């Protein structure tokens, strides 16, 4: 008889990790995994009460708009926990939903492992109380988070960063990068700007057009500049094409594995999020940007207590690469800042500093570590 395990992987990056964790679980025993995940997770045997591709919503107003759908999924999950007598859960990121769920799971005696910490060190520190009361173990993906949690009296362990499982120094080989460009009809000397607007529908809405407009403005000053739009795994070409003018020159839409896509570009305009760490590991100079609707931004401003929003700058605890948020996200400001980061000397400085990232993060079999930790609580 299979043992039930609840798994919540409600965003694109979470589902990518969830797929790997589920693969390890399938090798370790007979588990009946259910919850929220992606289509690939379903193909590995997960029973989905919710679809990750429909739940990646960012911003307070956006969440309110979808509240009834989230509430229905929340109730379906609890009903399945009760029906299956599930006693173990893995919650991945997605704190607004997962911490509310954790309170209900605790009432049912469910043991909770939490992977990918909420940014309680940056904002909403009051969430520590719920974590201490409900979570058996916090598995974190940045070294500084382990010390933070232990100081707060929470059992925590740095299990490595899952991105390191897909990263190798061979990706940085100049010949491999030149070959990647060649396959796209580019020469090794072509200067290519990467556009990474994000993985959520709301991020595409907020960022895509202004990234394209910024590229156009830069191209007027650098006529030979080309651009690749790098799509997240959950964003389809079909959904993007109606949003893009047909008259954009030297512009390609790429959908591939993140590290592979970045081999084809020289520098990147990137939405804040996990993508900034991928860009950093590939040692690409970048400008980090982020924008949400004004009401969500006003509320966040009252609650956020960190100097930087980009993961890269948080890891290094300084502004290694520039950030522009909210009102600063306009073509004039982005163009001016981007021209600075692509100056040869500045590009070289950024690349050299980013080269330290693999050593800081270390090499761990992260998703296997998570699966092993989870099974201990079954």
Furnish the topology, listing elements before pairings.
Layout: E1 3-9, H1 12-28, E2 31-37, H2 39-43, E3 47-51, H3 60-65, H4 67-84, E4 88-92, H5 95-107, E5 111-115, H6 127-134, E6 137-140, H7 143-151, E7 156-158, H8 174-183, E8 192-196, H9 201-221, E9 226-230, H10 237-240, E10 251-254, H11 258-262, E11 267-271, H12 274-281, E12 286-290, H13 294-303, H14 311-316, E13 323-325, H15 331-341, H16 344-354, H17 357-361, H18 366-375
Parallel strand pairs: 1-2, 1-4, 2-3, 4-5, 5-6, 6-7, 8-9, 8-11, 9-10, 11-12, 12-13
Overview of this structure, please?
Helix content is 47%, strand content 17%. The protein has 378 residues and is α/β, with parallel strands linked by helices. The chain folds into 2 domains: 3-161 and 363-375, Glycogen Phosphorylase B (Rossmann fold); 169-361, Rossmann fold (3-Layer(aba) Sandwich), CATH 3.40.50.2000. The protein has a 7-stranded parallel beta sheet, sandwiched between helices. A 6-stranded parallel beta sheet has the order 10-9-8-11-12-13, sandwiched between helices. α2 links the parallel β2 and β3 (47-51).
Question: Can you give keywords for this protein?
Answer:
single chain; about 375 residues; alpha/beta; Rossmann fold; seven-stranded parallel sheet; 18 helices
CATH class designation of the largest domain: Alpha Beta
CATH topology of the largest domain: Rossmann fold
Average pLDDT, rounded to a whole number, is: 89
Distance between the termini: 14 Å
Strand coverage percent: 15-25%
Biggest β-sheet strands, sense, barrel: 7 strands, parallel
Q: CATH superfamily membership of the largest domain, which one?
A: Glycogen Phosphorylase B
**Please, what is the oligomeric state?**
single chain
